[in-house]
Every structure is written in structure tokens, then in C-alpha cells.
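[agent] plan:
  1. take the single chain provided in the ticket
  2. run structure prediction with default settings
  3. attach C-alpha cells to the ticket
  4. add a short note for the reviewer (M.T.)
[agent] executing step 1
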Amino acid sequence: MIRIDVMFRFIPTIIAFLMTVCSAGADDRWTTVLEKKDIIEIVVVDTNDIWVSYSNVCRYYNGEWIKFPSDMVRGQAIAYDGTNVWVGGKLVRKYDGKEWTELLNLNPIDDSGEITDMTFGSSGDLWAVTDMGLMMQFDGETWTRHTIADSGYATWFTSVAEDDEGSVWAGTAGDGLFRYDGNAWTHYTTADGLPSDMIRTVLIDEDGLWCGTEQGLCFFTETSATIFTTEDGLVHNNVHCIAFGINDDLWVGGGTAFGYDYSGPCDYWRTGGLSHFDNGVWSSYTEEDGLVRDCIVTLAVTPDGAVWCGTICGASIFTPDQTSVAGTSLESQPLININGSYPNPANSMTTINYTIAQPGNVSLAVYSVSGQKVATLADGFMPAGTHAAVFDGSSLASGLYLYRFKSKGFAKTGKIVLVK
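[agent] step 2 finished; step 3 output follows
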């Protein structure tokens, strides 16, 4: 996946220090490892087997860290095939648990670039993309090059994923999204509904494709695009990474960092953090909660639900509290709490419950995925307490709808699915 760029040189490092001090109220669900390392990629093999790339490649195995020498293996892309771990950069090497085997050397190939992401498809083939617009397929014996240059594009691929139908999707650094079905390329841009042509990461879902862009998170299909931004509850619009949780939830990391060319990433001014999308509700975490740095560039979730967050200055491991609601312990209820909708999916009617600790103006509306408002459930002053808003979708077609709640500068968006 694509890394953040240093865009400005004149940012006082004192700001970075002050932001670090602000994390003093962090809770004990956070653990920091690999401090001061500029993390690139994290891949989970098992709960006690985690692989991380930065300037080196290292492995967290049964409670111990193993660091591999850079002359043995180096690269920013890591993939796991169920048995072996693969690392890609200018070289592709495979680790079988005992030794490394080199399978590809891109150094002699002038126009190949460096591998930015890798994934394994349903057939077991490895798919790798580079920062010079090259897509490669490895079937265990032969490397096949697939290029879009003949179509008039020479792009920087940032990410790659294969869907259930065997099509390979690749995000780019400014040229939108490409789909390769084995024969032809299809190109998608902002004209097709994407919020930006800068696609930093892609993640396949059973109903479509999640895209992390520099202008928000997008759930994309070939016929529609649903966009989430900070106005909906996302912690930052510059989305670098997406990962599924263990309970059909979604974790999103992002942010931006700026600093002197000669200063280390730990001293950069930064913004961003970790967002969680669960049961239609967004919650977010930052340095104030215990994250080592706000700018997250890679995410991975272990089988027991721990969230590994790779940042510009180390990795943070977040262990979610199962008693939490919208990211806050039940012992300390938030000023506003959205409990989602029930039932969901619904045949025609569903109820959205919300609680406000203080009286104030509330706006709650439902929209189609195209952005058309289809219902207003609340719009005005409401007393403190718990309220139930009933959405009647009997006159609407089956499909996905979004509800949006606003009150006192707080905004959250959730999904409603109608099935008739």
C-alpha cells in the first residue's frame, strides 16, 4: 500500500511534542511495540505469529521478536499463503519456517519498479503490483506480467485484491481503480463515484469493494458507491488501511503527517487515528486514547480480535473491551449514544434508538446510497434521555440505505438493509 508523503518542511517539532503529551490519559487496552519504527506493513498469520515490515522484516512469534537481517530479506509487502510467508520489494522471497528462498529479482528489469502490495487468489496464485504500473502473477512455476501501459496508462499501483469471481482489483496513486478479469482491464475514477482517484488500499467484501482514498472511505460496486468521511464519524479522510474485525465489523486507519526532511517520523506533526465501524456506528481512537501516533498506515486483526496498528513511530496493539459501546466503557456513558437499528436487515420497518445526555437539537434522516433523502425521523429540539425513531420503508425498494444522526457537533452514520 502507498506510504504517506512528507509535504512540508517548515512545521515546528514542538507541536509533535505537545501532541505526545496529550496522550497522558491513555487506557490500558493499548500496548506499544517496535517504538520509533516507521511501520510499513503488518500481516497476521495467527494470534501469536505476526509479521511486520519497516526498514527490516521482523516476526513476533510466541511472545518473542525475531529480526531478520536486511541482507537476508527486505521489502514493504508481506503476504501469507496458508503455509509460507512471502516478502516483496525489489526481490520476492518465501519463508517456509526454516529458510528463505528467492523467487524473483526485479533489479535487472528497468521498468518494473518495486512491489508495493501482494495477495493470494483463490487458485493459490500470487498477485503482486509495483509502483511502475506492473501487475505480476505467479502460479508456483512461472511469473506472468500484466501491464496496462498498452491501454494508455502508466500508473503507480498501491494495493491489490482478488474478488470471488477471480477478478483482480488494483488501486493507484492518482489514476483511480482498475479491475483485471484475466483478459481485459476496466478503469474506474471519480466519474464512477469514487471520492478520489488516489486509492491507497482495497479490501474485498462479499457485496463489493472497500477503497481507502485520500478523500474518505468508499464501499464500491460497479453500479454504486457509498462514501464515508469525517462528517459521518470517520477519524480522518485520508484512509491508508482497512481490516475486517472478528464480529463482522470494520477497522479503518488513516491520517497525515508533515515534518522536516531531516527529522524523524516520530517528530512529525500528525493527525488521524483509528476508526471502528460496528453495527452501523462509527467510533474513533487517537493518541489521547493510547495510540502511539495518530497517523496509521497499516492494520491487521488477530483471530482473538486484537487490532495491530502500524504508525510512523511504532506499532500499537489495541485490545477492544467487549463491554464497550461506541468506543466508551459502559462505566462512563458518552453524551450521545447510538444503538443502531433493529431489526436489521428489516422487511419494512426498523427502529433506531439513541440516547442524549443533555437536551438539544437533533437531526436524524435516512438516505439512499445515491444520496437522496428518503425519510426524516427527527429534526428539532429533543429532551435528554433515550429516544426511539421508527423508520417505515414499506414504500421503498429492497437495498442498502444510510441513516445519519447529528447533534451538538456530533455526527454518525449507519446502514439499514431492506429485504422484501
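[agent] step 4 note for reviewer: The CA atoms of residues 119 and 127 lie 5 Å apart.
[agent] ticket updated
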